[in-house]
Every structure is written in structure tokens, then in C-alpha cells.
What we know:
Elements: E1 6-14, E2 20-29, E3 34-38, H1 45-52, E4 60-65, E5 68-69, H2 75-81, E6 82-85, H3 98-108, H4 113-126, H5 142-154, E7 160-164, H6 172-184, E8 188-192, H7 196-202, E9 205-210, E10 213-219, H8 220-223, H9 227-232
Helix pairs in contact: 3-4, 3-5, 4-5
Amino acid sequence: MSHHIVEAKNLHYTYPDGTVGLNGVSFLITHGESVALVGENGAGKSTLLLHLNGYLLSNHGELRIGEYPVTSKNLKSVRRSVGMVFQDPDDQLFMPTVFDDVAFGLLNLGVPEAEVEHKVIQALEIVGVPHLQKRPPYKLSGGEKRSVAIATVLVMSPDILVMDEPTSSLDPKSRSRLIALLKTFKHTKIIATHDLDMALDLCERTIVLHHGQITADGQTRFLFQDEHLLLQSGLEKPLKMQGCPICSR
């Protein structure tokens, strides 16, 4: 399934103000992998994610989504393969109702209305919020907005699911529900996060970014045991790997 592959070769990106976002990033992600991108603020996580859907185009190097190089002429094909869930759901929800938001992409593709309705309800059921379809997005809770934002992506049947800080600002119950939901997805998943406990639960593989470079790429549980690596990257061990502070276990 080559259309699920994400491959970067020596990827560079410098912002117009001279800030280096990526500095020689290379990796290969294959079909069905769940990969966490971790690193401190400014490490390059969001910059890399924005390249995966063509919102940013590299200054140097190559990025390929399936059979398509990520270039301006291939953006339509790339964006059909990659579904992006932004850190702030308000960046994706702008229509009068939840139903309208989830239907927006399909209607733009000219999908018949009867088919659109079926797909929208199906996507809302997958994320557990079909009862919200007539609600205005601005009246939803943070967890509800996150679920609807995911539905707007899933309804397009992407090959690759990309998420930026999906547990940010969620209460514990909403966070647990989101993790349980993401465990059911068979997509290739690429998740940028500071939530290392979530990464441990969801992602077999982790890529560590620091100053726009990959400093480690390997099995999540193994990397999260490397205290020196985590310290250099501005990270701490997941809570479930830290042991009990009282009994020192």
C-alpha cells in the first residue's frame, strides 16, 4: 500500500524571518504505523506536520506522500491522502452547525447530498457525537470540538491521519475517550504531542525532534527509558514510567 507511505529525505525549512524550522529531517513511515513526534516547544514538530499536508513547502530536500512528491502541483492529491487535525479545533470549525462542518469537504468535491448525509452521520458516530449534528460548534465543549474536528477529517477517508497536540486542553475524561477512540483507527497515524503517556499508549514508534533535527527514532518504550535523551530534548519520562515517588518503585 504505497499510498500510505510518508518519506522525508534531508528536509529543510527556514521561515521568512530566518528561524530554522527543519534542518535535514529524514524518515520513512509505512502503512499502519502509529508514530509520535515529540520534543520541546520550537523543536520543529508543528513545522513538520504542516509539511505533510502541503501547508508549508520545504526550501530543500524531498517529501513524498505515497506516490506523490509534496509540491504545489500535487497538493490536491496529497491532501486527499492526508487528514490533518489541528491543535486548535476552532481552526477547523467555522460553519453554522456541526453537520455543515463535517459535510463541507464532501460537498466541495461534488459528492451527492444523499451520500453526504450518510457519510457525515457515520463519521459522527465513529467519534461518538451524532447527537451534536445540529449544534453550533462555538457552543461545544473542548472535547466535543476535538471529536467533531476529527470527524471532519475522517469523513474524507484519508489514508494517513495527522494530529497536532490532540489531548491539549482536554479534561481527563475527554482525554481517555480520545485515546480509546484513536486505538480503534487503522490509519497510519502521526501524532505530535507533549503528552508522552498518550504516546506510550498509542504509538509503537517515536521520533524525537530537537532544534529542527531528528535526535532519535525508535521504539517508544525504549526511547522513553533514556533519561539523558529526554533531558536533552526538554522532556520528562511518562508518569506511568516514573514509579511511585513515595515508595520509590
